[in-house]
Write a structure and sequence with these properties.
The chain is of the alpha+beta class and about 270 residues long. The protein has a single domain, classed as Gcn5-related N-acetyltransferase (GNAT) (Aminopeptidase), CATH 3.40.630. The protein has nine helices and ten strands. Strands 1, 2, 3, 4, 5, 6, 7, 8, 9 and 10 form a ten-stranded mixed β-sheet that branches. The relative contact order is 0.16.
Length: about 270
């Protein structure tokens, strides 16, 4: 890979690339930087940086009693490569190396945080190859539609409204098992694996002190559960999500696509 370089790119260019090559079309709500990785003049990868839904609570939970705030870290929102480069094992580590250097030169953050989505079978090998420190896993829930769509609970607002009417309640925060059965929706629980890379020696010592380490998970650590009745789950084999389907997630995707069209036409008109 020759002449690989990084620069900030317009949102519309980053999101178009993600829509074409990333398994998830739904974007985080808080994105601060859209970074493009170029081989010569060809865009071969995109990384977005920002925070999740609870930026301050996240860092306080990851590293409690340290005084760190949202100003001290970024989280990778999206990271994807073009298909030819996605097959190359060294692409990810080279891009992360460039990303770390860009963060050191252009921001004041001290840590880069990310998650590997075990629900879709990812344990984070690209982060392991780049010597991220591992911070354990947590279980999280998603829905799988009757068509196989992977639905984040935050994207299920319309389903929740329909569910509330179905059971005669004013408001719900989770879909009820009887409604899921009625709609052919499954509630799936899987692991999310935490990774962090320190941007200076002080932060590395802090992470190690807080039990972040190099004892990485493997594919044998992947597990899935499916809700059987309210509050009870049973272990299942890996669910087969249809990651190209965006019916329930359509509103999020179309909103970004409309914004892309407006920004692109403003720039080139």
């Amino acid at each position: 890979m020759t002449n690989l370089h990084i620069r900030e790119i317009p949102k519309y260019q980053a999101t178009e690339f993600v829509y074409n090559y990333h398994y998830s079309k739904v974007f985080p709500r808080i994105t601060k930087h859209y970074l493009g990785f170029f081989e010569n003049d060809d865009l071969i990868g995109v990384v977005t940086l920002g925070w999740g839904t609870q930026p301050l609570q996240t860092i306080r939970k990851l590293l409690p009693n340290t005084g760190l705030t949202t100003q001290d870290y970024y989280e990778i929102g999206k990271m994807c490569f073009s298909p030819n480069h996605n097959k190359t094992k060294t692409t990810g580590s080279k891009i992360i190396s460039l990303l770390v250097q860009w963060l050191k030169n252009n921001t004041n953050v001290k840590l880069l945080y990310t998650l590997a989505d075990g629900i879709v079978g990812r344990v984070g090998y690209v982060y392991q190859a780049s010597n991220f420190l591992y911070g354990g896993y947590f279980w999280t829930d998603v829905y799988m539609g009757s068509d196989g769509e992977k639905i984040h609970p935050r994207s299920a607002k319309e389903l929740l409204k329909e569910n509330a009417e179905f059971v005669g309640k004013e408001k719900l925060f989770w879909l009820t098992p009887d409604f899921c059965l009625h709609k052919g929706v499954s509630r799936i629980r899987g692991k999310m694996f935490r990774y962090m890379i320190p941007l200076n020696k002080k932060m590395r010592k802090l992470l190690i002190k807080n039990n972040w380490n190099l004892e990485y998970p493997k594919e044998s650590d992947l597990q899935w559960k499916k809700q059987v009745v309210k509050g009870k789950y049973g272990f299942i084999e890996a669910p087969e999500f249809a990651l190209d389907i965006v019916n329930v997630n359509k509103k999020n995707v179309e909103s970004n696509q409309r914004n892309n069209w407006c920004m692109e036409n403003m720039i080139f008109s």
